[in-house]
Structure formats: C-alpha cells, structure tokens
Design brief:
The structure holds two protein chains of two kinds. By secondary structure, chain A is mainly alpha-helical. Helix content of chain A is 52%, strand content 0%. Chain A has one domain: Non-ribosomal Peptide Synthetase Peptidyl Carrier Protein, Chain A. The longest helix of chain A has 15 residues. Chain A is globular. The N and C termini of chain A lie close together (8 Å). Chain B is an alpha/beta fold. Chain B has one domain: Peroxisomal Thiolase, Chain A, domain 1 (3-Layer(aba) Sandwich), CATH 3.40.47.10. Chain B is globular, with a radius of gyration of 20 Å. The chains are: A mainly alpha, B alpha/beta. Chains A and B meet through α2 of A and loops of B.
Chain lengths: 79, 409
C-alpha cells in the first residue's frame, strides 16, 4: 500500500466516520487540538486500523501520536 | 414537558390524538418473521439527531436515549431553561428505564472474532440501562443528581415521585424527570414468551382493549417523555409557566410470591398512600389515568383496586356508589400501547395535557366491560369537563406499584 493510499483511507475515515471537518484535514493538523479527537475516537481509530490495514495497534499507541502525519507514518511503519 | 410517542412527537399533536382517541399501533411483519407471535407495536419514528448533535454525542446514545433527547429538548425549551442556564445552575436528572438491548448488538463480534478491542468505544455507553441519563447528563451539561430508576413498568412513575421528594426536601430545586423505552423487537420477545402480548395482528388499532372482556394482552410501545420538575417558589421567581403541581406520591410492593402476578391490594396501597401524601380524599380526584395494559390478570386486579378506592359499596344500600363524585377513569394505553418504563412519565404528560385542556381522553376499544370494572366511571368517549386533580396509577412486574397525584395550578 502506498503512502498516498494510506493517507486517502485515513482521511476518508476521519471525515466520514468520525465526522471531522473536511477543511481541517491536513498532514500537520493536530489530532486533539485541531480535529478534536477524543479518547473514544482513538479507540475507534484502532479498530479502523485493524480492519483496514490488518494490524492491531499497541495499547495506547494512538494517543501518543500528535499530528495526522504521525498517524500516516505510524501505519506505514507497521503495515 | 416533552414527548416522543406513537401518538405524536410534540405536545400539540399528542393532545389532539388524545382528544380524538387516535391509536398509534401498527402491524410490523418483521416481528413475525423474527419469531414473535405478536406483530403489533407502537409506530414511533427514530429521530434524526444529526441536525442537533455532533457525532461525539450521537455515537454513545442508545435507541431510548435518542427518544429521551428529543423529549428533553422540548421540555427544557418549554420550561425556558436555556443551555446557558443549564451550564450555570444545578439541574438534576432522573429517568425511569429498564431493559436495554444494545449489548446484544456487540456480542456477535466477541463470538466470531474473540477480540474485545473490536467492540469499540460505544458498547459500554450504549449498553447500560443508564445510557439515557449518562448521555442526557453529558449533552445538556447537567450538574445535579443523575441516575435511572429501574422498576419495570412503574419505573418512570417512581422517577417522578422520587424527584418530587428530593425537591420537597430541598436537596434539588430543578430536576428533569422522564421515562424512555426502546422498541427493539428483541425486548418484546421476552414479553411474548410469557404470552403477555396481544395476538390481534389483523386489527392493530383495536388490539389494546383495557378493561374489555375480549382483551388478550398488550402491544409494546415506547419512545420518551420528559418533564421539568421545579420547586414552586423557584419556578415563580424565575417567571416560569407552571402547568401542574406534583402533590402526591405513593408506592408499594405486592408482597406476594408470584413474580408476574399483579395485586389489587398492592395497587390499592400505593394509590391510597399517594392520596394521603397529597392530603386528598378519593372524592377529590377528577380523573384517574389507569395503568390498565389490556392483560388478562392486570386489568382485573387494577379494577378491583380502583373500585375499592373510588367506588366502594354503599354500606346503607349494599350497592356500589358510582356517583357524581366518582372520578372519570381511562387507560391511555388503549391508544398508545404499553410504553413500559416510559409509561409513568408519558402518562403524567398525557394527564397534564388533559388538565390544561379540560378533557378526559377516551378508553378506546371498550365494548364489553369486565365485571370487576362495572362500577367504575370509565370514559369510553372523550369527555369535555374541567379536570383539576389527577391520579396516575402504575404497576410493574415483580410487584412494584407507584401512583402520582397532580393538581392544576
């Protein structure tokens, strides 16, 4: 899977499932501050990653990520 | 007050339905396909919450919390309690609620994939009985008391009574009370299993026949009802419009061994206690909203209790005295079906609408009254008359009873 494909799938999840503002989606956007990610959203994101990319994020891993780019990179490293 | 029910999703529509004796019951063939013997259910639409609430809130809401939100919005708006007011003051929250089926939505994931992480974040918050109060408390930023009362079909009647007691004792000055109930057919299956539901699938709107000899069980319904209870002086000082006063709460447990058996004695004791609490005599009551669910045993026991309280035999003549002082009685469940844990609160709303608009809603589908109710003044048609005091009776499986008395202000 290319970085571009990862980015597209993550962005679609962010806007369609978590209903984050499409205009706020950008690599440098901070998950909590700019997108409003809650701890429950982080759990939902873990499930999305397992179902879409085939690996289970480690416990609490999503909460340590700061930006959307960090999330793209985390997925790319573990896929 | 606010309401989301099968006879309307706003107070005016519900008032008109009550006046016109309009049933909200339909036949849903998917219930038969699922395996129920009764395909009857209240026609309650699922609200679209997207225009009102961001996903953050919607994601954790159970079906009944959705209904409760719509009813609560109406109640707060009518009471003039703004979002700003709710954030800055201590407003409590007590809802009657019981069975919640949502945990069943998630169990196939465990059985098939054996990974609890895949349940996601909403299973916990959707699946608990108190999902309604968890969600409403969060959405409306409420800071006062916050819990659900689980007492089967008397749940939300007890909720209203408990809230009134807390206000009387000065522990809270404003509480949103209510009741909510899912229409999930998996919940109805359990009632169908004990043969409690009507099988009159061909005549949905005629199936609820409280106090009639041909009744054969209840029709499950649901939705939500909400009322803002407020300490009188506090409401006056705020300039609020006051629609009614809760003047009496009575409760009892049957004290019998059979878990599903209703009890005339238990219901009588709860109603008598509510009257005593209000300082009223039976002759002071203008209207009784009966619990009457159209079940074989329930209506008989309630009719006996109502007769003992409101139409006792005249000691001099030996005959019963259905006199001018006997209150009008009807079961609004004849139109709404049985709203279960929502019923105490919804019937408080229905009763107060009748008081406000000076009418008694009819007990529809009553042709041949059961012997036990023959001395009662049951309203078969809409009666236009001033109503100043109401007793609303509720009863639940397991022997729990609750009665409320309301007075017009």
């Amino acid at each position: 899977m290319t970085p571009q494909e990862i980015q597209e799938k993550v962005n679609t999840f962010m806007t369609d499932r978590l209903e984050y503002e499409p205009s706020a989606i950008a690599p440098e956007a901070e998950l909590k501050r700019d997108l409003g990610m809650t701890s429950l959203d982080a759990v939902e994101t873990s499930i999305f990653i397992k179902r879409t990319f085939g690996f289970q994020p480690e416990r609490g891993a999503i909460k340590t990520l700061v930006t959307l780019q960090d999330l793209y990179d985390y997925i790319a490293r573990n896929i | 007050m606010g309401i989301w029910s099968c006879i309307g999703q706003d107070l005016h529509t519900v008032m008109e339905s009550l006046k016109q004796g309009r049933s909200g019951i339909i036949f849903d063939p998917t219930r038969i396909e699922y395996g129920l013997h009764s395909g009857l259910v209240g026609n309650v639409p699922r609200p679209d919450l997207k225009p009102f609430l961001p996903r953050k809130f919607r994601a954790t809401m159970s079906e009944d919390a959705e209904y409760a939100y719509m009813a609560a919005r109406q109640a707060f708006e009518q009471a003039g309690l703004s979002d700003e007011y709710l954030r800055q003051n201590e407003v409590g929250l007590i809802f009657g609620n019981d069975v919640n089926m949502h945990m069943l939505d998630y169990m196939p994931i465990m059985e098939e994939e054996h990974d609890s992480m895949l349940l996601g974040p909403s299973a916990l918050f959707k699946g608990e009985t108190s999902s309604v109060t968890m969600n409403l408390g969060t959405i409306f930023h409420l800071k006062g008391i916050n819990f659900c009362v689980g007492a089967a079909c008397a749940s939300s009647s007890h909720a209203v009574g408990l809230a009134a007691m807390l206000i009387r004792q000065g522990m809270q000055n404003t509480i949103l009370v209510g009741g909510s109930c899912m229409l999930d057919m998996r919940g109805s299956a359990a009632a169908d299993a004990i043969d409690a539901l009507s099988h009159q699938n061909d005549t949905p709107q005629g199936a609820m026949m409280p106090f009639d000899t041909n009744r054969d069980g209840f029709v499950p319904s649901g939705g939500a009802a909400a009322l803002v209870l407020e300490e009188y002086e506090h409401a006056v000082a705020r300039g609020a419009t006051i629609y009614a006063e809760v003047v009496g709460y009575g409760f009892s447990s049957n004290g019998t061994e059979e878990i599903s058996a209703p009890s005339a004695d238990g219901e009588y004791r709860a109603m008598k206690r509510a009257l005593d609490d209000a300082g009223l005599q039976p002759s002071d009551i203008d209207y009784v909203n009966a619990h009457a669910t159209s079940t074989t045993a329930g209506d008989i026991e309630e009719a006996k209790a109502l007769t003992r309280l409101f139409a006792p035999p005249n000691p001099s003549s030996g005959s019963s005295e259905t006199s001018a002082s006997s209150p009008f009685i009807s079961s609004t469940k004849s139109m709404t079906g049985h709203e279960n844990w929502m019923a105490g609160a919804s019937e408080a709303v229905y009763s107060i609408l009748m008081m406000q608009n000076n009418f008694v809603a009819p007990n529809i589908n009553l042709e041949n009254v059961i012997d036990e109710a023959k001395d009662l003044n049951i309203a078969r048609e809409t009666i236009y008359t001033p109503i100043n005091t109401v007793l609303s009776n509720s009863s639940g499986m397991g022997g729990t009873n609750s009665a409320l008395v309301f007075r017009k202000i």
